[in-house]
Structure formats: structure tokens, C-alpha cells
Amino acid sequence: MAKKQFKAESKRLLELMINSIYTNKEIFLRELISNASDALDKRHYLSLTDHDHKVAKKDLTITIVRDQENRQLTIEDTGIGMTAEEMEKNLGTIARSGSAEFVSQLEKDSKNIDIIGQFGVGFYSAFMVAKKITVESRSALSDKGFRWVSSGQDGYTISEIDRDTVGTRIILDLKDDTDDEKYSDFLQEYKIRDLVKKYSDYVRYPINMEVTKSIPDPTDEKATIDTKETETLNSMIPLWKKNKSKITDEEYNEFYKTKFSDWEDPAKVIHYNIEGNISYTALMYIPSKAPSDFWYQTYESGLQLYTKGVFIMDKAKDLLPDHFRFVRGLIDSDDLNLNISREILQQDRQVRALAKSVEKKIQNALEDMLKNEREKYEKFFDEFGLNLKYGIYKDFGLHKDQLQDLLLFRTESEGKYVTLKEYVENMKDDQKVIYYACGKSLDDIRNLPALEKIRDKGYEVLCFLHDIDEFCIQMMRDYDGKQFQSITTADLDLDSDEEKKAKEEKTEENKDMLVAMKEALGDQVKEVRISSRLKDDPVCIVAAEGPSLDMERYMANEPNNMLGNIKANKILEINPDHAIFGKLQEVYREHPEELNDYADVLFQQALLIQGLPIEDPVAYTKKITEMMIRTK
């Protein structure tokens, strides 16, 4: 029996397969079981189409045998089997092509070669753990059996054997253990159980293995004895392949909690099947609570990926956009192109089409929850709303149209959530813009002096309680043609003609005092002016063109600020109807040298009210004390 040699490029490919392509040795079992499942599919199809080759469905099985004494692991199936010619074709030439061009391309970019459909690729992953592989097989279309034996790159032999049953037996002689690798773990019952559960739980044929069970000892009620029995390791029928009408809420919830290690039922289940240019089944969940690590950079998003019920990837990021990264679930498709190791998705039109379809389904589910389950949606938004806002900001408004109607903001008047659409629909007839205010809480916003005039007009104000909110609406620019405007913007244009005239007269009368206060404050403010927006408060700070007050506050508190010391163009507004204004006039008239202190204290006070830091709190408190002493 002469030994046959692999082609030179096939030897190189085998070396690449073992040392470069597969990043996780344990997937060899997934590959061998997948090949066995394919062989069973072919025999089942032959049984349906050829009456001479009938086989009962119950006889289509996969069996795993562990021989710890001889360090052998066997995977046997009752599938279609192989003839000598098929062994030569499928196993003798890796990936069948064996071309130098193919190997050259693989050496350059092993992650982007689409040959997973070739039988030999997955099979040869077994050489990662085996020093010798023996394949014994008999085809359903032949009465002869054949044995293929190889120890790797030194070649292989094919010989005829006596084999009574149709199917294929693959015997792996495992490598010796080393300090770095314990190959004997693959002979442990628990390890095989774990690998089948992880990768092959939903293979449609039973995967059987002899296991050890403890049963009560009939001679001693306090003792147990070990017994051997054959057990089916896989569940075979995945939940997502069942008819939706026959799946209960409890089954959905239990599957989610077990599969994704959550203690709470999900907020929403998204289960559907698509047939078309790319066919797939999806079972996705919107969690009720954000995972503890959700807002950390280490959090990994993505959907689990299955092909024909075989687990391929745990986090397929290409299938889930960042703005929906809170979704957990899985996709099962036979149509996707994977790389040579089935570990990474190819970036092709199929993936993009699938990702777009998944994204649309998630969006529809959220829109449905918002429309028909408002209370549940608001709870969802409390958990993940920031992620939707970040989705608009991150891509410079690219996803504005898609996400804007999913956003919620609390109102100043009632504190309840509203959508932007609801806000616009309830705007006053004379209201031109969408007003907003930033703060750490509703109470902080309600105490802002700049709110008084808008409240008197009966205009609603959206409360931005998170730093991302203002960044988000800057990317949006507008909603339904309505611009967003902060209540701390310098020119709100809320005054009537009569109010404008009175303000101009008051400004002219006190022009010199206002200029003196501006000079006292220097470049801390762009202007000191009479306010028409204040009612009960003495002063407030507003921003002219450029960065807003809240943007300055955010950047001042941002530890990783790469933009430097951003400052708003501040304007100090003084309420002419407040008692403090009369005091200022008196000081300017009788003790002008003290006006600087009054201007500084009022400016620092306005900063504190706005939530902005003051540069020297000690100097500020000392100045107030000195002024109190002078007043006394």
C-alpha cells in the first residue's frame, strides 16, 4: 500500500490551517460534527429520492466515542459515506483546488477567503489536536469500505477494508500533552458535553455518547454506584426554528435568561423568518435592564451567528448597528459567506443586506412598543435611551431620520416624557422654535432665571438632563423644520414692540453704568445689559454666538477633553425691576469705586445658578463678607 503525497501547495495550506487560520482549537469538533450532519442530510435526501436506499430517520445519528486509555476520540455517522475516489477527492486534496495561486492569496489574507463549502477545510482542522487521523467509510452507493490514514504533511494512504455499515468513522489519535496544551481534555466527558452544547446543540440529528450516571446503590441506601448509558447530548430543535404560535412567553423568556445569563425577563421579543435573496431566521431580545458593563468600553455587542443550527460566532458585530447594540439574540442563516475558518463574516452585499434587514426589524419593534406599550417603552428608554441619542451624535446626524422619533425628553411643566413629534404638535401657534434647557435635574432647570419669560408665554421647554442631549440636537439641527433653541441663548426674540422700546430706553438711561460693569468684569463677559426675560431673579447669564453655557460646563468637567479650554461668549443680564438694580444705580452714583465688587459678586452668583464653576470660591466668599461689613 503506497503512501500518496499531498501536493506541495496543499502541504503549505495544511500548515496554514493548523498554525494560522484557526484561533481556537476546540472548533475541530464543531467542524467534524458539521461534516457528519452534511453526510446525514445527503443520505436522507437519497432515501427520499431513491426507494432502493430507504433509511429510517431514527437510524441517522452521530456517535462520539472516548477512549482515554488509547488517547483516541472517534466521531462516527450513519451518513452517505465515501468511496475511494471520493476520499481521494475530498481528503487527498485540501480544499480541492490545491492551486499555488490559492495558497498565495491565503498567505496574504487568510481572513477573506470564501472556501468554507469545501469539505476538506473543516476536516483538516482536526490536525490541530490529532497527530494521526484515520477515516473509515463505506458509501451508500457501494458495497466496499475504505480506510484513509494520515499523520499530516507526510502524506496519506487509502486501502480497502471490510465494513458492513454505511457511513463514516473518524478516529483521532490525540497529540501528547504539553505544558501549554492539554489535548487529553478532549477525552473528558464534561469537555465533550460543553463543546457539543456550545457549537452543535441544534444539529438536527442526535449526537450520542456513552456517559456515566450515578444511581442509588440497592445494597446501601446512603451510597450510589456509577453506571454507563448512552445519552443524546444535543437538543436538536432550536427554539427559533419552531412555529411562533406554538411558543409560549415563558419559553421565550426562559430561553433568553438561560442563553444570555440575565435574571429578568426581556422587555421585547423579536422573532421572525425571512425568505428571499438572503434567507434567515432571527430571535432577538430587548433587555429590561442594561447589563452592568453596558456603558464601559469593554462591553461587546453583536448577535450570535448560526449556520444550519451550528454555532459559528458569539458576537457578530457586523450584523448589529451601534445604536441598537443593546439588542441580544441570534441569527441563523445558510446563505452567509464566512471566511475559511468560519470565524469572521465576509464584508459583502449579503452581510450588508442582512444587517440592514435586522436593523429595520429592531426599529419597527421599538416603534411598535412606543406606540402600543408606552409605559414599557419609557422604562426601556430609561435604560437605553442614551444609546439612541449617541447613535445620532456619533455619525454626525446620519441616522437622524431613523432615530429621532424614538427619542424621549421630559417637559419642564409636568416632568413627563414626550416625543419630539408630540412636542411640535402641542406648540403654541406663535411659537417658532423648540425650546430646551440643560441641567442635572428637573429642579435645577425649573430654578433657572432664564426660564421665567418663556414660562409666562406658556411655551413648553424640553429638559436636557444628560450631557449627550445637546450634542445630539446639534447634529439633528432641527425637527420637522423647527430649530432647537436653548433658553440661555442671548436673543430669544420674545419681546413685544412695547417691551423692546422700554428696554432700549432703560439701556440708554443706564448706559454708563453698564459700560462700567463690563469694564470691571473684563473679558469674562462680552456684554452687560438690561434683561427683559427676568421676572423675580436679579441676574442671569446667557450666551451669544458660539459655544453654549452648557457646552462650556460639559467641557470643563470632561477629563478626556481634547478640545482645550472652550468658553461661551457670556452676557450678564440684569433685571431692571429688581431691588438690586436700584442698589447698583445708587452705588454707581455715590460710591462708583465699589461697583467693581458688585459686578463681580453678581457675575459669580449668575455662574453658580447656571451650574458653572467659579474660579476662586475663597475670594468670592471674602468679597461677600467685606460687602456685608461695609453695608452694616
The rounded distance between the terminal residues' Cα atoms is 116 Å
- Order of neighbouring strands in the sheet with most strands: 5-4-3-6-2-1-7-8
Which percent bin holds the helix content? 25-40%
Strand content is 15-25%
Counted beta strands? 22
Provide the CATH architecture of the largest domain. Answer: 2-Layer Sandwich
Structurally, the number of domains stands at 4
Total of helices:
20
Description of the molecule:
- With 632 residues, this protein is α+β, with helices and mostly antiparallel strands.
- It folds into four domains: 8-232, Heat Shock Protein 90; 239-377, 2-Layer Sandwich (Ribosomal Protein S5, domain 2), CATH 3.30.230.80; 408-486, Rossmann fold; 497-631, Heat shock protein 90, C-terminal domain (Four Helix Bundle (Hemerythrin (Met), subunit A), Up-down Bundle), CATH 1.20.120.
- Helix content is 37%, strand content 21%.
- It has 20 helices and 22 strands.
- The strands form four sheets. It has an eight-stranded mixed beta sheet, with helices on one face. A six-stranded mixed beta sheet has the order 15-14-17-16-19-18.
- Strand 4 (145-150) and strand 5 form a beta hairpin.
- Helix 1 (8-21) runs parallel beside helix 4, helix 8 (349-372) crosses helix 9 and helix 16 (511-521) packs across helix 19.
